[in-house]
Amino acid sequence: MSRLARAANSSRRVLVTPEGIAMPVTLASRGSRLGALMIDLMIITAAIIVLFVVLAFAKQGADAAMGVTDEPASSPAGQFLEIVAILAIFALRHGYFLMFELGPRGATPGKRMTGLRIAARDGKRLTTEMVLARNLLRDIELFLPIAAMTAASFAGGVASWTMALWLLVFALFPLFNKDRLRAGDLIAGTWVLEAPKTSLAAVLSTGQAATTGTSRTTGVAYRFGEEELAVYGEYELQTLERVLREDRPEALAAVQEAICRKIGWNPGAGDERAFLEAYYTQLRARLESGMRLGKRKADKFSA
Amino acid sequence: MASVPASGHAPGSGAGQAAIEAAALRSDRFRLEREGDWARLEEIVSRMEKGRLSRLSDADLLELPVLYRTVASSLSVARETSLDAATLAYLEALVQRAWFLVYGPRTTLWSWAARFFGGEWSRAVRAIAPEMLVALLLMVAGTVVGWLLCVQDPDWYYSFVPGELAGERVPGATREVLLKGLFGNTGDSGLSVFAAFLFSHNSGVAILCFALGFAYGVPPLMLLVQNTTMLGAILWLYSGVDLTWEIAGWLAIHGTTELFAILLSGAAGLHIGRSMAFPGDRSILDAAAAAGQRAAVVMAGVILMLLIAGLLEGFGRQLIDTTGTRMAVGGGMLLFWLVYFFLFRRVPAGSEAE
Questions:
Q1: Which of B51, B85, B214 is facing A105, going by the closest CB pair?
Q2: Residue A207: phi, psi to the nearest 5?
Q3: Which residues of B touch A106 (CB under 8 A)?
Q4: What is the pLDDT along chain B (354 residues), one digit of tens a residue?
Q5: Which residue from A111, A300, B199, B330 puts its CA 20 to 30 A from B340's CA?
Q6: How many whole angstroms separate alpha carbon B171 and alpha carbon B153?
Q7: A-B interface: how many C-beta pairs under 8 angstroms?
Q8: Secondary structure of residue A58 in the 3-state scheme
Q9: Is B81–A245 a contact, with Cβ atoms under 8 angstroms apart?
């Protein structure tokens, strides 16, 4: 397996929904989560800057209106706006993630842009308590390690570096477990998943070649016998499906040739798609009827 | 938007019926018969994902869970009968997208608050009662140790009470100086700023105390002891000049709420640490998740208590200038919390927590 394929495989998990359906999910990559965090932090920072500019202007205006010139820092308007500032920063720091993750879209703007969602690890409902728990730990995972690192790099000394390193353990926690949980995810019972997006591809078995086995171009009827269909299994069927959906002429020709070699037919040219559609439909019909009887054939090597 | 292929018509329509009959495979007929529902679900899900809730009718919202179950059952049937990989992949993705919405956080703030105050909070607090006892013992021990060490050697005072906080309150200060700090600040301006600052600062400390519980509960223990040695040292200082009752009132008016909140946050942190160290017959992850969610409820309440404590400290203490009234307010708050947490044993309807 290539490194890329292994990486893709290691992020696959299977959840069981409350209805008892096994649902394959993909864990969000650490990179896209970092990206989402960066976007969110930028939004928070921008909001704080805007808030301060607005408050500064408001204070100037209010002070002028009330005729306050001396001691501007403790003017009544200044005090009121200071309270607004303290509470707003508290709300932004602790409430931003909470508000968005509890909202109808269940993700912060950063997560939405990077296509991530939060979900309960047990497949059940994501509760308010979980979102609360995972966001209460942001302080020691994010703000404190940064502050401690900055402090240590200025102050130096064994104690402050030890503290910084210890806090770094929390910051780097997602790197050290296979489910990429942050400390907050761990105590909340949540994880971060990729939001899937696929559209429904066309039905393959309604074409003329598929339904009747006859080619529209040549009028030849393709009928395959039991032993001609028995050579392949589900794996080959899915490969064939992919080739048909991609619809590249050279691939169609190559696959037709491979099948004909295997079943001992003479491959004709120019009618590959009809041949393959007919073979695909008849092979699928055979495999699916086996499936209904509880007999499955994984690939050409299995009995 | 749903990308319904040319062959995907609503079941029952003339052309759709023809397409279903034309399909050579039973599994494709199955798909064509149900495609309408799938497309409908995909449309609702896409609109909800884009946040256009206002454009969604109530009928759509009611239909979502129904359609979700329909499509989920389509998926389980398709897994048993169909070998069409594209359809299976589509259904899996669609079920997952709908699952995010159906099992997402769907309570409104209002209904959550009703449940929270209507019993969830006090239940979570009761659930961490053993840890609260430990935290209480530690806080008492911290206070006593702070006091005793100062009795032995007044220099300890400086290591317990940081200089910027002590101000004039240092060993050797006269009774008058100390008394002045306790009373007569009713005319102070800036009370509200002070209250807001206290709230923000104390909440930060409480969240930290809780968050550190994650590290197997040791740091919150240290934080609890460290904070209460300061309390012990201050009590020692004032009792030395016969102001014990006055300092007690000065601290109690907000302190009963604030110290209770700090006790709860420490206990919540300990609770997580304990369940990770001793998960019982569950896995560490499950135990941590269950404890974390319970502790999160406690913490939401702690923030609220600290808001009240900030108001009491910022306004109440300055405006109420007699020790008797301060004691009454502080004692009343303590009584209120105890009654609310331990005697109010209602289990709210529709509780999400286990």
A1: B51
A2: -70, 165
A3: 100-101, 104-105
A4: 344 444 434 444 555 566 666 667 777 888 888 888 888 999 888 888 877 666 677 788 888 889 999 999 989 888 888 888 888 889 999 999 999 888 887 767 788 888 889 888 999 999 999 999 998 998 899 999 999 998 898 888 888 877 666 667 778 777 887 787 777 666 555 566 767 777 777 787 788 777 776 665 666 777 788 778 888 888 888 888 888 888 888 888 888 998 899 899 889 988 988 888 888 888 888 898 999 999 999 999 998 998 898 888 878 877 887 888 989 999 999 999 999 999 888 777 665 544
A5: B199
A6: 11
A7: 234
A8: helix
A9: no
Give residue limits of the domains in chain B.
Answer: 14-102, 113-343
Helix (H, G, I), strand (E, B) or coil at B276: helix
Tokens of B31: 């798909």
- Inter-chain touch A200–B200, beta carbons under 8 Å: no
Residues in chain A: 303
CA dist list (Å): A226 to A72, A142, A266, B41: 94, 63, 18, 40
Q: Which of residues 134-193 of A touch B (CB under 8 A)?
A: 136-137, 139-140, 144, 170, 183, 186-189
**Cβ proximity of B42 and B32 under 8 Å:** no
pTM of the model: 0.80
Beta strands in chain B (DSSP E): none
Question: CA B252, CA B255: separation in Å to the nearest integer?
Answer: 4
Q: What angle do CA A258, A261, A263 make, to 5 degrees?
A: 110
β-bridge partners, A214: A221
Question: Are B190 and A74 inside 8 Å of each other by CB?
Answer: yes
CA distances from A222 to A208, A214, A272, A278, B236 (A): 11, 6, 11, 6, 100
Classify residue B129 as left (phi > 0), alpha (psi -120 to 50) or beta: alpha
Handedness of CA B226, B231, B235, B237 (dihedral sign): positive
Q: Which two tokens stand for residue B147?
A: 């006091």
Would you give the end-to-end CA distance of chain B in angstroms?
38
Instruction: Residue A254: name the closest of A237, A238, A240, A235 by CA.
Output: A240
- What Rg, from alpha-carbon coordinates, does chain A have? 31
Task: Identify the H or E element spanning A120.
Answer: strand A116-120
